[in-house]
């Protein structure tokens, strides 16, 4: 099969022929129809997530949907021809966290495209598939499904479950990339008043299409101060969808007393993303600092139901469809923070 292979960090992926995936008794082989290009892939490409990855050469890619081609002898929930979406976080189903419904923090979690070969290829093997694969409703196309694969579902979990957004609340979202735009659309659909913060006017204009009631270019103004003036005291929830030190700090500074900071963006800082935070402010204002990663499998049904009913429209986040051979252009755009919206591979 054809795949885009990571042979060295920070070097262009090599599109070449590789061996087809091998079927296991508990696995499923998919023919991929669409695979999103996510900043987590970029972090993998740069080496920021090398500890989570198998040895090189390696195939990245984790936002995918496709059609079942082969099923292992132990598979009961899927058959050839089924349309499916692949959750990013793959639990073992047996640890205490999985048994409590939190597959996204499984003690033995595997991540598609990191722990095993990913979706920048024509085919992929999903292990433990009866637990870690989901049927895709007929009314949802593959492009929309792949737009949900990581960024959108990560934002859904962060906004709805971890952030516990409520109608009428003020929500500030730092970063209007894929995760940020997803958070804006989801929080708006939940009835919140969303403020988008970024340094690029084109991204902020795009954010308005997904429900942002106000936008702030933090290159031109002091964003926390502007948010406090606009909300008359500060945001109830502030989401950092980027992970750099400035957005972490500014997100915390944007909160009203007893506000909730939700960390969605992964940091590239050394020592596991070590980032100084204003501890005294957190203490005196009783702020909550909440981490959020991926999404547990039980939450997918609610998200898919909202997409089916048209209350959420992740497909509208897609601004570019590319061929597998164009993957390095997509990574270059991410390196330079160029473009906006979501890029999806639809030609393999």
TrEMBL record:
Alphabetically ordered keywords of this record: Metal-binding, Oxidoreductase, Zinc
GO molecular function: oxidoreductase activity; zinc ion binding
Alphabetical list of InterPro entries matching this protein: ADH-like_C, ADH-like_N, ADH_Zn_CS, ER, GroES-like_sf, NAD(P)-bd_dom_sf, Zn_alcohol_dh
Top-level taxon of the source organism: Bacteria
Domain Enoyl reductase (ER): from-to ranges: 8-345
Keyword Metal-binding included in the entry's annotation: yes
Keyword presence, Metal-binding: yes
Entry cofactors: Zn(2+)
Family: Belongs to the zinc-containing alcohol dehydrogenase family.
Protein name stated in the entry: Propanol-preferring alcohol dehydrogenase
Organism field: Paenibacillus cellulosilyticus
């Amino acid at each position: 099969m054809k795949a885009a292979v990571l042979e060295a960090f920070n070097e262009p992926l090599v599109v070449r022929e590789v061996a087809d995936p091998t079927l296991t008794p508990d696995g499923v082989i998919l023919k991929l129809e669409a695979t999103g290009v996510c900043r987590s892939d970029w972090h993998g490409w740069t080496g920021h997530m090398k500890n989570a990855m198998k040895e090189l050469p390696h195939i990245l890619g984790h936002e995918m949907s496709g059609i079942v081609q082969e099923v292992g002898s132990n598979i009961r929930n899927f058959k050839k021809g089924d349309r499916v979406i692949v959750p990013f976080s793959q639990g073992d189903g047996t640890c205490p966290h999985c048994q409590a419904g939190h597959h996204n923090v499984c003690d033995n979690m595997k991540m598609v495209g990191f722990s095993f070969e990913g979706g920048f290829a024509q085919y992929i093997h999903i292990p433990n598939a009866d637990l870690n694969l989901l049927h895709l409703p007929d009314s949802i196309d593959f492009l929309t499904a792949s737009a949900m694969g990581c960024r959108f579902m990560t934002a859904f979990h962060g906004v709805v479950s971890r952030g516990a957004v409520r109608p009428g609340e003020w929500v500030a979202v730092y970063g209007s990339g894929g995760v940020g735009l997803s958070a804006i659309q989801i929080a708006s659909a939940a009835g919140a008043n969303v403020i988008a913060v970024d340094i690029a006017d084109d991204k902020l204009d795009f954010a308005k299409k997904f429900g942002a009631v106000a936008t702030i270019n933090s290159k031109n103004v002091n964003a926390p101060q502007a948010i406090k003036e606009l909300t008359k005291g500060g945001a109830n929830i502030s989401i950092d969808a980027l992970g750099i030190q400035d957005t972490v700090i500014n997100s915390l500074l944007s909160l009203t007393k007893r506000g909730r900071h939700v960390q969605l963006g992964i940091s590239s800082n050394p020592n596991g993303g070590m980032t100084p935070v204003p501890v005294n402010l957190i203490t005196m204002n009783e702020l909550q600092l909440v981490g959020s990663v991926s999404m547990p499998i039980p939450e997918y049904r609610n998200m898919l139901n909202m997409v089916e009913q048209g209350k959420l429209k992740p497909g509208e986040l897609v601004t570019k469809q590319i061929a597998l051979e164009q993957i390095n252009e997509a990574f270059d755009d991410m390196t330079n923070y160029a473009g906006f919206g979501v890029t999806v591979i639809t030609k393999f």
